[in-house]
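It is worth pausing here to work through a concrete case rather than discussing structure prediction in the abstract. The textbook approach is simple: state the sequence, then state the predicted structure, then interpret. We follow exactly that order.
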Amino acid sequence: MTRDSLVLIGAGSTVFTPGLMTDLASSPVFEGWTVHLVDLDADAAETMARLGRRIAAQRGADLSFEPHVDRREALPGARFVTTTIAVGGAAGWRHDVEVPLRHGIAQTVGDSVGPGGVLRALRHVPELVAIGRDVADLAPDAHLINYSNPLTANVRAVAATTGVRVVGLCHGTMHTLGALARDLGVPRAEVRAVFAGLNHLCWLLDLRHGGADLYPQLRELVAKNAGGRDAESSRHEGVHLPVSADLLETFGRYPAPGDRHVAEFFGWYLRGGSDGELPWGLQGGQDMTMEYIAEKDDLWARLHDQADGREPLPTTDAQEAERFVAIAAAIVSGRELVELAVNLPNHGKIPNLPLEAVVEVPAVVDAAGITGLGVGLLPDAIAAVLTARAHQQEITVRAALEGSRELARQALALDPLVPDPATAEAILDDAIEAHGPVMDRFRPVVAAGGTA
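Step two, the predicted structure:
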């Protein structure tokens, strides 16, 4: 009897993969399945496979874990494919932050928007489209779930170029909702919320406890508590965050997921810091990103020790915050699940955003798959912000697919954090040198006479 299978491409993800395997081993829905772990680094794939087998044994789960370096070997007949790739790894992410910084542009994350998000898309889109085409060829009925950032651009590219069923998942709105429920003193399980927008700039449209509208209480609490602009405060979500409070006051809705992400969508929050510190308490957000990049080697050392039995396994459940396992279980079992947020093509779910844009909206999941829900019109000013960003992301995707230097330069120049086209071009040229061959497609064309 052929075992059902799930394929994880980019299995070397130090945060996502161990949690995913733990949650799969904790769910009876996936008894008897095979998990194929694909990574270009054979050691990463093999280490995760050993770790998965330890997790399954500890929990008494009938799960098989198989390592691969060739995804086409793993894909045939898969029911689910997840992508967590990072082209260039932690070093690539560091370049996406540090290259713009040399031109005076600070970013708090640099993996979704800002010039760093554009540079990351230029590298990730071609690879994810190639994966999507392999899925269409070898597992055409599979659900492709993407986690790699920039999530919106990546999902848009795969949806535009392949026929596969693709969605993106992100835990951001869940974290925001949990923090707001805590601060409001309401059990998280009893709160009902509607978020909609683009990934990493999603807006809380409705918030209720039973039949009670919590928005008036939220506004009051934010007004009373916001303004903690020390570097440490931006590391944790909640009603104290000053950028989120300012956006609530300006646009009338509360944003997700936290200041370090939403600030990058606007041209004003990351400028004008004194004595080298970012304004609006955002220094802690930038420090978090650099610490996270720096700790990758330590995480790998710990995972090797866990895989080989030199260190105990984590004992906590529900580690995979993006909810993939719950979504896949609902599809396999047919038991309906309502999801807070998924990322998928708009097609009218938000009528005043571009039809082709990838939007983040609630969804219903069942045996038929993942169905995004319409949320109606967004407030005009919010729609204006998101529409401009969606058009910029469309240009970014085209640049990545076509290898167009002109479009790449335009995408960078259109970013609110980039002051002018000359800076955009300088960032692009420095990124080409920093990232090496993966960015060679964007070098200036040299004419026969030797001039560009």
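Step three, interpretation. The chain is about 45% helix and 15% strand. The CA atoms of residues 71 and 232 lie 41 Å apart.
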